[in-house]
Amino acid sequence: MWAAPAAAPGWRRVCRADEVPANGMKEFPVDGTSVLVVPYRNPVVTAKMLATLDVMSGGRMILGAGVGWMKEEFETLQAPPFTERGKVTDEYLRLMRDMWTKEPVQFVGAHYRLPSVSAMPKPRQKGGIPIWIGGHTDVALRRTGELADAWHPIAMRPPAMLLPDEYAEKVKVMHGWARKAGRDPKAITLSVRVPLELAPTRGKAVVSDQPGFRGSAQDVIRHIKSYQARGVSHFVFDLAPPDLKGQLTLMERFAQEVRPKVLRAPR
After folding, report:
1. pLDDT at residue 75 above 60?
2. Is 148 exposed, middle or buried (0-12, 13-18, 19+ CB in 10 A)?
3. Which of 223, 212, 225 is nearest to 262 (CA)?
């Protein structure tokens, strides 16, 4: 289960193509945010909340992180200046990672200073909670390459379609930043978040001018394999049905009709 906790918080159910259980979606392997606007919140409080959730979930948290885009929201929340949101995000993420991996922790930055304190409990995951960076801009690619565990953009939805070839080109740019930072590019997970809708097995097919993984099971399988060929291992889906019953039905169909055809052997 992933949350979309921006200005309008709300949980949404999503599937991951390589981890959706074949038992009809009776359990979820990960919990995450997609994405948390980092500058909106105090980084120390946020790090503590996420660490607690990681412990309570048995080490299943992922932090999907973004910088935000609406100036008015920054002003309403009295957050750091909108023009500084990128630098603030980088600093807050480094502070949060320190809180998850060091004991005691002390941090001195341009936007936040933390005296030597104890931050307990630590996350269950070794190395701290994985950070997945959202966004598709050059700055987001640099941020991912320098400090993130994964790239987590939205595709097939304006303003960035990120079709497979474009996605692959941006991965090359991100990998370049990783090498400059002395990191192994292959250690950075590639994910993509897209709309998902399966056509009914009987009756009318899906008719929509909206982009996304929409159509028959074979259409969705083809889309997934196209991104897999570019290195994507994790898929997060925005489910088209607006109601819980429709979402659960879609998840069950995905587990039965799509997932077995796109699974890859564990590494």
Report:
1. yes
2. buried
3. 225
Domain ranges across the chain: 2-262
Helix (H) or strand (E) holding 194: strand 189-198
Asked if residues 48 and 99 have their Cβ atoms less than 8 Å apart, the reply is: yes
pLDDT digits (tens, 9 = 90+) for 218-261: 999 999 999 999 999 999 999 999 999 999 999 999 999 999 99
Burial 13-47 (b: 16+ CB within 10 A, else e): bbbbbbebeeeebeebebbbbbbbbbbbbebbebb
Residue whose token pair is 């379609």: 161
CA distance 115 to 204: 63
What does pTM read for this prediction? 0.87
**Sign of the four-CA dihedral 160, 165, 170, 171:** positive
| CATH number of this structure's domain 2-262 | 3.20.20.30
**Any alpha helices (H) in 137-214, and if so which ranges?**
138-147, 164-180
- pLDDT tens digits for 28-39? 567 889 999 999
Quickly state the pLDDT bin for 22 (edges 50, 70, 90): very low
